[in-house]
Amino acid sequence: MPALYLGHGAPPLLDDRLWTGQLATWAAALPRPRAILIVSAHWEAAPISLSAAAAATPLVYDFGGFPPKYYAMTYPTPDASALADLVTSLFPDGKDVHRHASRGLDHGAWVPLKVMYPEADIPVLQLSLPTLDPQRLLDLGRRLRPLRDQGVLVVGSGFLTHGLPYLRDWSTDAAPPGWSRDFDLWASEALDRGDVDTLARYRTEAPGMPYAHPSVEHFVPIFVTLGVAGDPGAPVSTTIDGYFYGLAKRSFQVV
């Protein structure tokens, strides 16, 4: 099973025909997962935590200012207790894995999954983002790597650029600001040559910083995905590129 890094988008993604078509086509080309484990930029918590495993756990509507229809959306996934047990088993004696009884999927998970797997018939759990440190996230990805052999799709969910405070044009087809375009090109070139070390030095080496990421939680899930890869230094397979509100929606898979 490959692993993914995807730009998850805010709820208006669900009304964008181009992007939803790209996500749906991508999902159709993947092997069907037995389960999905997703690390979202919107859940930073240590120690490592798992979302609630019960079937149809209510969603987290962690956004504001959008039309009411988005707050009525559901994504009632099946029971994921077996996945929770499997993930916990990857850590020595289940050390430092907290299993929540009530926390549901946040929009970094359910928005793209509603497009990719609209039937909501695959068990899904979120794993919290326990650190922002690239090396520790690469190590976390390596620990999760055995899940791929069990048919689990591991997803890092963020956004390749996320400088929301610096956007001036809020149309979905806005031209990308220079800082967004420059960061996207830099990251694309590093990913194409499998240069994980350069990517890990993004704070000091990436053009467009800190405007591209005034806070970095939307970029660093990339290191979980790269850690899950059989060879983190191999070039990735880009499936989606371009911009949404001028932000880079670049998404890729690794094998």
Task: Summarize the model shown.
By secondary structure, the chain is α/β, with parallel strands linked by helices. The protein is 29% helix and 15% strand. The strands form 3 sheets. The chain has a 6-stranded mixed sheet with strand order 5-2-6-1-10-7, with helices on both faces. The protein has a two-stranded parallel sheet with strand order 3-4. Strands 8-9 form a two-stranded antiparallel sheet.
What is the secondary structure topology, with strand pairs?
Layout: E1 3-7, H1 17-29, E2 35-40, E3 48-50, H2 81-89, E4 97-99, H3 107-116, E5 124-126, H4 134-144, E6 152-158, H5 178-192, H6 196-200, H7 202-205, H8 221-228, E7 237-240, E8 243-244, E9 247-248, E10 251-254
Parallel strand pairs: 1-6, 2-5, 2-6, 3-4
Antiparallel strand pairs: 1-10, 7-10, 8-9
Helix pairs in contact: 4-8
What are its keywords?
255 residues, alpha/beta, Protocatechuate 4,5-dioxygenase, Chain B, six-stranded mixed beta sheet, 10 strands, 29% helix
**CATH homology group:** LigB-like
* Total number of domains: 1
Distance between the termini: 7 Å
CATH class: Alpha Beta
User: What fraction, in percent, of the residue positions are helical?
Assistant: 25-40%
Compressed to H and E, one letter per element, the order equals EHEEHEHEHEHHHHEEEE
Q: What characteristic shape results from the CA principal axes?
A: globular
Summarize the main sheet. Answer: 6 strands, mixed
Strand order of the largest sheet: 5-2-6-1-10-7
How many runs of DSSP E, i.e. beta strands? Answer: 10
Mean pLDDT across the residues is 96
Strand content: 15-25%
Q: How many helices in DSSP terms?
A: 8
* Poorly predicted residue ranges: none
CATH architecture: 3-Layer(aba) Sandwich
CATH domain topology: Protocatechuate 4,5-dioxygenase, Chain B
Structural class: alpha/beta
Radius of gyration: 17 Å
